[in-house]
Structure formats: C-alpha cells, structure tokens
Design a protein that fits this description.
Pfam families: SpoIIE
Structural class: alpha+beta
Radius of gyration: 33 Å
InterPro entries: Bact_Sigma-Reg, PPM-type-like_dom_sf, PPM-type_phosphatase-like_dom
Number of strands: 18
Number of helices: 8
Protein name: Sigma-B regulation protein RsbU (Phosphoserine phosphatase)
Keywords: Hydrolase
Low-confidence stretches: none
Organism: Algoriphagus winogradskyi
Helix content: 25-40%
Strand content: 25-35%
Largest sheet: 6 strands, mixed
Distance between the termini: 107 Å
Shape: elongated
C-alpha cells in the first residue's frame, strides 16, 4: 500500500512538473524563465540533488544550468569532444584534465531526429529511491525543443528585419542611379547593371552640367551589403556636390579621397573613374582611380584604347601619392565603354574568366554600334560564355556614344 501511495505521489509530482513547464512554454516565457522553471521542477518535484544541462549551440554544447556541483566543469564543450558510442549506448567526453563529472551519477542525452540537442547530468537526492529517467528525459526534451523553437523564431525574426533593411537599402541604392540616360543626337547612353545580390557595390552616374558639358563616372566600393550601399550613397552625395561647383577633376578626386579616408580610417576603398567631355571643344579629360580602364572606341583606330591615366584607389591613403589627368582631343564620332570587374571576372563552367582580352576584342568588333544594339549583342555573348554560372560580383557596363 505504501509503495502504491508513493508511486501515486510520484506520478502526481511528474504531472505537476509537466504542467508547469508546458504552461510556461505556452505563455511564451523567456529562455531564462524556462530554464529556471526546469531547474526548480527537477530539484523540488523530482528526486534530483544536482544537475548540469548542456544545450547544443553552433558546433558546441553550452552550459545553461549548473546546480549543486562542487567540481570544475566547463562552460562550453566542443561537439568534437562529445563521442556518442551508439553501438554501446554510451557517451564519452574527451575533456581536459581540470574538468570532471565524477560526482554526478548519470547522464541523459536528448535527441531530436538523430541530432543531439542537449546533455543532462544528474545526481539523486535520495539514493534509496529510483529516478524516473524516462520522464526526466522526456521533460528535458520538451524544454530543449522549446528553446530550439525560440532560437529558430528569433533567428527568423532577425532575418525578416534584415530582409526589410536590405530591401530599403536596395531602394535607396536604385535612387542613386540616374533615372534616365540621355538619348539624343549628341549623346546616347545605355547601361546594363546586374547586381550580385539585392544590394550591390557598383555605382554609375551621368550628369549633364550644361548644354556643352557632361560628366560621367563608374565606381566599385569594397565590400557588399548595406554598409557598402551607405558608403556609396555618401560618396555620390560628395561627388555631386563637388561637380556642381567649379572644381576641376584634380580637385574633385583629391577631395573625394580625403572625405573617404576620413570617414573610413583607410579601412574601405573605392575604385573610381571620372570623365568630362566638352561638346564644343571636343575635348575629353578623365581620371582613373584604380578602376578597370574604360575603353575608347574610334572607327579609324586599329584597336580600342585603355583610359588608365589617373591615380590609385580612393580611401587607401590620406593623400594620393600621384595624380595624372588623362586627355584626348579632337574627338568626333566615338564611343566609351565603362565597366566593373564583375564583367571581366564572370566565369564559365570550366572556371575560366571572361577576361579583358575577350572584352577588348568584342568592343573592337562592335564598339561603334548603337548602345542598345551593343548591349543586346554583349548580353548574348556573355550568357553564351557563362552558361548560367552565377556571377561572383556585381556586373555593370555603361556605354556612351558621342556624335
């Protein structure tokens, strides 16, 4: 009779324990609250004197609960140190000598779909009484799965917030680009912009300062994502402010470099090409700051020319170590093709890059085409080359045809 009464009392305590933990889960209590309820339940309602709970976290097991243990136990156990002998049903911990679990009686591994989510180490309060390991393991499983679900929900929420931030950054970045490119008798422009992700690191612009003057540029900021987009937006604002003034190309580039270095302490940089053309004097001046050299196409030339005069990348030094202003005069009926390295680094299934040589040959054969036709033909060319191999970087191609 006494034995039956004890059995009934134990079942009653187990039911109470189960109700307490499930109620806390249903109320969406915090992780700290759930862990405290579990510890209290084990110590008060179950025959447990000491316990340690390790929960899986990014390739390791983290100590979440430690009570009644006098010895030195680690805060974190690497997953590589946990050897699960499934053949014998034993668990072996390969720990450093200073750590020991000898004072604890037993352990209970907690699995979910063959994945070990936790390890519970126990010591009984009354050695004359049995410990219901099946119930204790089931209760631990409920707790650990609840913690896993909370972690997953938190991660999902963080991802949703990040996705919203990226979408906003992408919209902001699109606003940096010209709403329309000129298509008239003097100048026709066309761009192909293929971002590697929602927020790219490429930037291009075209600013018609007056009837006779036009500025055009292309840039590539180091890094990706929101930070790259923010850096590029600041860069664009500074550039447009400078171009509205009477500053020459040398002053514009030096000031952009100074501003970028001051804002990033030399930890981020931008490759940049800025060109200026005067329709009246037919003179082109430009600065190439470490960017892929744009290609100048003229019908009478034997090949496309690289526009590489300029300086080094912007933002790497507080003062530019050298600076050369490039110049071409008496230009009539010519085309310029500006691009970022995502174009030349596009790969085919064999791991071969598209490369500068292929681009130069393509431009030499087709550089005089109308920009729309040129881009249509180029996209066909690079798609045939890459055969659906994903881009490794943003791809931008800006073509300008001057007449």
């Amino acid at each position: 009779m006494i034995k039956e009464t004890h059995k009934f009392q134990r079942k009653e305590l187990q039911l109470k324990s189960l109700l307490e933990i499930t109620q806390a889960i249903n109320e969406n209590q915090s992780e700290a609250v759930l862990l405290n309820i579990f510890k209290f339940t084990c110590l008060v309602h179950l025959n447990i004197k000491a316990l340690i709970l390790y929960v899986a976290k990014q390739g390791a097991f983290e100590n979440k609960i430690s009570h009644g243990v006098k010895g030195n136990v680690p805060k974190l156990i690497s997953a590589d140190q946990v050897v699960d002998e499934k053949a014998t049903g034993e668990l072996r911990l390969e720990l450093e000598e200073q750590y020991s679990f000898a004072e604890l009686e037993t352990y209970l591994p907690v699995y979910h779909k063959d994945k070990m989510l936790a390890i519970l180490f126990l010591k009984r309060k009354d050695l004359s009484l049995d410990l219901d390991l099946n119930f204790t393991q089931a209760l631990t499983n409920i707790l650990v799965v609840a913690l896993e679900n909370k972690r997953f929900a938190r991660k999902q929420l963080e991802q949703e917030i990040l996705n919203r931030e990226i979408a906003i950054a992408s919209q902001v970045q699109q606003m940096l680009f010209p709403a329309e490119l000129p298509i008239d008798k003097e100048l026709k422009a066309k761009v192909t912009y293929l971002p590697h992700s929602m927020v790219g690191g490429d930037y291009y612009d075209l600013i018609r300062k007056s009837k006779d003057e036009v500025y055009f540029c292309i840039a590539d900021v180091s890094g990706k994502g929101i930070s790259a987009a923010l850096l590029m937006s600041n860069f664009q604002a500074a550039l447009r402010t400078l171009l509205r003034s009477d500053a020459d190309l040398e002053m514009v580039v030096k000031q952009l470099n100074y501003t970028l270095f001051e804002n990033t302490n030399g930890e981020r940089f931008i490759t940049f090409f800025l060109g200026y053309f005067n329709f009246k004097t037919r003179k082109l001046t430009y600065v190439n700051a470490g960017h892929n050299p744009p290609l100048l196409y003229r019908d009478e030339a034997e090949k496309a020319e690289n526009l590489d005069a300029g300086t080094t990348i912007l933002g790497a030094f507080d003062e530019l170590p050298f600076l050369e202003i490039g110049m071409r005069e008496k230009l009539t009926d010519f085309s310029l093709h500006l691009y970022t390295d995502g174009l030349t680094e596009a790969m085919n299934p064999s791991g071969e890059e598209f490369g500068e040589e292929r681009l130069e040959k393509f431009i030499y054969k087709n550089g005089g085409l109308d920009p729309d036709d040129f881009h249509r033909k180029f996209l066909k060319k690079i798609n045939t080359f890459s055969k659906d191999v994903p881009l490794r970087d943003d791809l931008t191609l800006l073509s300008l045809k001057f007449q």
